[in-house]
Fold this sequence. Notes:
73% of the residues lie in helices and 10% in strands. The chain starts with 7 loop residues before the first helix and ends with a helix. It has 11 helices and 5 strands; from the N terminus they run αααααααβαββααββα.
Amino acid sequence: MNNMKIDTNEVNKIIKKVIGHINSSRGQILNILDNVRSEYENLKLELVMIRAEINNTILEVDLLEKQDKVMRQKLVEVSKNFKIYSEFEVKYVYEAASDIRVKFLSKSNEEKALKVRRTRLEIDFKKLVDNLESSEKVINQISIALGYLEGDVFSTLGNKGKDSEMFIGIKILEAQENERKRIARDIHDGPAQHMANVVMRVDICKKVIEKDLVEGFRELEELKESVKVALMEVRNIIFDLRPMSLDDLGLNQTIEQTVKKISEETGLVIELKLKPMEQEIESIIQVAIYRIIQEVFNNIKKHAKASCVVVKLDYGTKYLMLNISDDGIGFDVEETLERVKTKSSSYGLLGILDRVNQLQGEINIESTKKIGTVYKVKLPINREVIKDEN
């Protein structure tokens, strides 16, 4: 077989041209995505406002309905005792009853129209959400492709398979994009929602204060609570990005603090066996260990029905071992992993598997029904070990 020499300069030119086209298309899609996001936020705010308007209208309709019933009863009374009422009184009751009736019917029709409008908006909103998710998925895929094309392509041309640097690089880029998407979703579903609500409540507060100062102050207190919740969620997102205690206290103490909090919240009896850290463990590995412990405990809290958990952390010169065992109800590991991989039905377990695989570690889950589950994770101390193994 003849050896074919690759002209790297020509390939570079082709790749740069491809990157240029992709960047141009990416820019156009981003512009479309920005417009979709803007429309999404406007429609979302409109939905919030129309729902609030419907709630207020329902209250008004209920009040008018009661008044209408009272006036109809009054009409019946006047009709039965026509002679004892003056002409003015009879006329007043009839006009008042007619006026309330018109207002009641008008407000009822307004409620129906608002509900029709809300339904249409909800349908449009659902379509917009689907478009937004599709657009974000395309951008995600383009970003992954660009991230790799703009990297060192030629150092990987000779490698093949899932153990190659190219495969690992793509997986890491994919993980980064997915993490960015997760963070954006957390911000959007959490603090962004609260802040949109705050903006709306500010306008309501202005109107309430003009009518009733005491009620206005009550609205301001509720507004303050909304801001507090948004602030707390922002802090939680920042902590999830990287727990500051890892830098301040180190891995072992951060695990101890987290486990203590979990124990207080759930009543779980948790035993820690953490080897003192005598050598440096790379930051990315520390974060991975911390996240894996979090996800395992999330699974234990949701599914295991355990009362006791043992966490062991040991390490040597190249690898560290994390063992977490519980005395819960157990589960069918093979069936669960198959379901997770094919249907993405457990994001927590998927997160554990992805973290371990991205760092070229090993994970083994052993579970016996009515006895418990053991999670065994092996990870390199740092990324240099990964390079040495390759």
